[in-house]
Each structure stands twice: as structure tokens, then as C-alpha cells.
């Protein structure tokens, strides 16, 4: 079964609140074999909400809405669903009584505006909310269903687990599972990795795709079926082939920083850092790893340049900086990143140098420092230089 998710709230479309509900819902639905095809964010506007729901209701067998079930004037989901499905709202006394009882249990007086929460579209199945004051409801037409849940994450999750999943299993007879496996890469490019596993990406089952973030890459493998053991076996077989072909680029699922620190820890080795950039990308990447791994990081010196230098001078400063921190912190390795002056095209050569006993390797990463991903690219390049040196 395929589904659409609609997250309702101006706070989402403004970006002041991140839509974590849809991500959780997509992962949860996958456990019963439901594949999310579309996620839509829509502001608190009755016309816009109605339009989005009406379109989804026409094309998808399962539509899930979150948010807009509160008691205030900008909570418009009930009215929008009623218009989109051509089902007038009707009052449910039992829902109202349940809301009133919940307020009494809080020791609070219910406002008159809470009365609107007891209205649901005609013919819809009311779903009392034991975790909050906003009831949910389900419109079930056999071949398609629309379910509306509160936007409060704890309430939404409770109702999904106690109402939605049983509905899909018991009334829709969903028995299949959708499993997803991720394999993480660095030291390659999306194009290069894609070429190596092109035939796997073109296969219809399991499905294989690649996404990129700051020069780190995730290969996602997904498979669906009614036999969980067989689906798991299919995923594992495909993953094994992907890992065989991309072996030299593999890194830990925890990320490149954890991968590097774990390799250092396993060898009783350590690293010290010299950063010539105020943002300290290498240090920030490493310190985000698990606490038990960060002990492999001996120290860091952050020394932004007083004035711009050319590429040759930047490389010399990086070599000197890497050796200095390695000696000062008595580390196995010293890693340094020093930027050259900004070129006419707005890009900067960042010289990255790794030194160790009888070891000196350098790499230049060309980045646009004003880019949001620039520091991530630099950190990835530096950490991958360490990774390749450790695994050489």
C-alpha cells in the first residue's frame, strides 16, 4: 500500500518548527509494508488545506494528516477534511464529555472553544485521545482511508500505535514488511559510486538509491514482502554485493568521524588537530562522536590566519601546523587544514595535511567558504585522508 502524509501548521511552513512527525510516520508505516510516496507541508489556511487534502484523497489509498486539531481559530483541519471529502461536520457528545473529563482530571476549567474539538466529519470513526484533548478520526471507504491525528508528537505516536497500526493490520489485512538498510561511504563521489552499482540501482527489487551530504554518501537498500525472513535475506544479499563493490569507500554507520576515531582507538593511536579556519570543521566533526571514542583526539589548536596567503604558503603552514600539534600533544598523527586566499571565482583552496611517523600526505579541497556545506566538505576531506591512511 502507498500513502501520503500531510503535515498542517504555519509553524512548519515558516520553518520555526521542524516536521519530525512525518519522518517518524514514514519509518513506522514501513514496518507494516506501507510506502510513503509524498509528504506535504501546508500552512493554516482553510483553502490551501482543503485543496491539498482533496488532491491526496483522490489519488492515494491512504492519507494521513497531522496537526490542526486544537481548539483555536487557526486549527482548521476538521473543516478542511469535511470540505475535501464532502462530509459535513457533526457533533459527538461522547467526545465532548471525554474532553471535559480530561480537563477535570487536570483540575482545569474547559474553555468554550474546546467544544469544536468534538466535531468530526459525518460518517467518520471518532478516535478518543487518551493522551490529550484533541480527538482523532478515521474516514474509511474500504478502498481508501483518511486518518487525522494531533500534531503533538507524543499524542500522534500513541494514536498511531494504538489505532492506526491495528486498523491497517486487522481491517486492511496488511502483512507485508518494508525493510531499509543504509550503507555509508566516503572518499568517492555520488557519480562514481552510482556507476559501480548502476545495475543494482536499475533493478526493481530490492530498490537501491544514493543520497549525498557534504561529500558523504548513503546507499539505501529497501525491500518489501510478506515473509520477513525472506525480505531480510534479500536485503542482506544486496547489501553484501554493494559492500563488496564499494569496499574501499565503506565507513561505519555512525558516520565518518566515529569511523576514524574507532580505527584510531583500535590501534591505540591518537590524533591532534591544527585548524586555520575559525569554524574549526575537523574538530567540530570529531567532537560530535560518541564520548568513548573522543579520547583518541589528543588536542586542537585553532589559529585563523591574520592575513590571506597563497596556496603554496597555505600548504607550508599546514605542514608546520600538523607537525607542531602532533609533537605538542604527543599524538600519533597531526592533521591540519589551512585556507589560501579566495580566488576571483569566489572559491578557496584549503590545504589539508596529515603527518605521522614516516608519513606525510597532503590534499587540497577547493570550496566556496560562503556555502552552507563548506565546513562539512572540509571536515569530510580531512577525515577521509586519515581513514585512507589508516586503511592503506
UniProtKB/TrEMBL annotation:
Signal peptide: none
SUPFAM superfamilies on file: Molybdenum cofactor biosynthesis proteins
InterPro entries the record matches: CinA, CinA_KH, Competence-induced_CinA, MoaB/Mog-like_dom_sf, MoaB/Mog_dom
Superkingdom per UniProt: Bacteria
SMART domains: MoCF_biosynth
Pfam families listed in its UniProt record: CinA_KH (PF18146), MoCF_biosynth (PF00994)
Domain MoaB/Mog: 4-170
Annotated CDD domains: cinA (cd00885)
Protein family according to the UniProt entry: Belongs to the CinA family.
Name of the protein described by the UniProt record: CinA-like protein
Source organism per UniProt: Herpetosiphon aurantiacus (strain ATCC 23779 / DSM 785 / 114-95)
Amino acid at each position: 500500500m502507498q500513502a501520503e502524509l500531510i503535515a498542517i501548521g504555519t509553524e512548519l511552513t515558516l520553518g520555526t518548527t521542524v516536521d519530525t512527525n512525518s519522518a517518524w510516520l514514514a519509518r513506522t508505516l514501513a514496518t507494516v509494508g506501507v510506502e510513503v510516496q509524498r509528504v506535504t507541508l501546508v500552512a493554516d489556511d482553510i483553502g490551501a488545506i482543503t485543496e491539498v487534502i482533496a488532491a491526496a484523497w483522490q489519488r492515494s489509498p491512504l492519507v494521513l494528516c497531522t496537526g490542526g486539531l486544537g481548539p483555536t481559530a487557526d486549527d482548521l483541519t476538521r473543516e478542511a477534511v469535511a470540505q475535501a471529502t464532502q462530509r459535513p461536520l457533526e457533533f459527538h457528545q461522547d467526545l465532548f464529555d471525554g474532553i471535559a473529563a480530561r480537563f477535570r482530571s487536570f483540575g482545569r476549567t474547559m474553555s468554550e472553544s474546546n467544544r469544536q474539538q468534538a466535531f468530526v466529519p459525518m460518517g467518520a470513526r471518532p478516535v478518543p485521545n487518551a493522551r490529550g484533548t484533541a480527538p482523532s478520526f478515521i474516514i474509511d471507504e474500504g478502498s481508501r482511508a483518511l486518518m487525522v491525528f494531533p500534531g503533538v508528537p507524543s499524542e500522534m505516536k500513541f494514536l498511531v500505535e494504538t489505532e492506526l497500526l491495528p486498523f491497517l493490520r486487522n481491517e486492511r489485512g496488511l502483512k507485508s514488511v518494508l525493510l531499509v538498510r543504509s550503507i555509508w561511504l566516503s572518499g568517492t563521489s555520488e557519480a562514481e559510486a552510482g556507476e559501480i552499482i548502476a545495475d543494482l540501482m536499475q533493478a526493481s527489487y530490492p530498490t537501491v538509491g544514493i543520497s549525498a551530504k557534504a561529500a558523504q554518501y548513503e546507499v539505501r537498500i529497501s525491500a518489501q514482502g510478506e515473509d520477513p525472513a525472506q525480505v531480510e535475506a534479500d536485503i542482506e544479499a544486496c547489501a553484501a554485493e554493494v559492500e563488496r563493490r564499494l569496499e574501499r569507500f565503506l565507513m561505519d554507520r555512525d558516520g565518518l568521524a566515529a569511523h576514524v576515531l574507532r580505527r584510531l582507538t583500535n590501534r591505540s593511536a591518537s590524533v591532534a588537530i591544527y585548524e586555520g579556519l575559525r569554524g574549526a570543521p575537523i574538530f567540530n566533526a570529531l567532537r560530535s562522536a560518541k564520548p568513548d571514542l573522543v579520547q583518541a583526539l589528543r588536542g586542537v589548536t585553532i589559529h585563523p590566519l591574520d592575513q590571506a596567503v597563497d596556496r603554496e604558503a597555505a600548504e607550508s603552514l599546514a605542514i608546520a601546523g600538523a607537525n607542531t600539534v602532533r609533537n605538542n600533544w604527543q599524538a600519533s598523527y597531526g592533521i591540519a587544514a589551512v585556507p589560501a586566499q579566495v580566488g576571483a571565482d569566489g572559491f578557496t583552496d584549503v590545504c589539508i595535511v596529515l603527518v605521522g611517523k614516516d608519513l606525510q600526505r597532503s590534499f587540497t579541497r577547493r570550496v566556496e567558504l560562503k556555502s552552507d556545506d563548506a565546513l562539512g566538505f572540509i571536515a569530510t576531506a580531512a577525515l577521509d585522508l586519515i581513514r585512507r591512511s589508516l586503511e592503506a
